[in-house]
Amino acid sequence: MSTPRFSANGSGPDRFKQSTQQQSLESRTTQADKNLAVRYEALSQRLGTAEAFFRHLKPIHAIWVAYGHEYEDSGHCNSWEMLGIVKCSNKWQLCHGWGINDDVLVVDPRPIFDRPVDVRVRAAFAIRKLHEAIIKAKENYVPEVDKAIEEIDSMLLDAPIDL
Fold this sequence. Notes:
This protein is of the alpha+beta class. The chain has one domain (18-155). 52% of the residues lie in helices and 22% in strands. It is built from three helices and four strands. It has helices at residues 13-56, 117-124, 127-158, and strands at 63-71, 77-88, 91-100, 107-111. Strand 2 (77-88) and strand 3 form a beta hairpin. Helix 1 crosses helix 2 (117-124). The radius of gyration is 28 Å and the shape is elongated.
């Protein structure tokens, strides 16, 4: 039985194997980078289209939905992510923020395109939920507008002068 031989200068068969593995990792990295770049571009385009669609829906106010809840060992939810449509600089934008503990406020809200790609990927799974919330908010607002109209009508009926 022969004893394994080791090269004193590191040029033996194991070095060739390492070099081949390194090239394989480099080519896999290059291919993964190319694949991700195409998909990141597609994700950005789709988020931009969703943002334009939500703008077209004419939201009545900022709307946020929660997703990605993180729970403590006790089962208490201590943080979650928020996706919303918010008017920033006089333009409705998709925004991302955080909910923490039981606060009602959205912490660190920013346009979704100002967030890292991993945040945008997770947010994509809340797009449908946000769409439903926008529609529901509009539906729920109809009776409020009706009450406002009734209030003005009532005041005008009680007005002492004829218009």
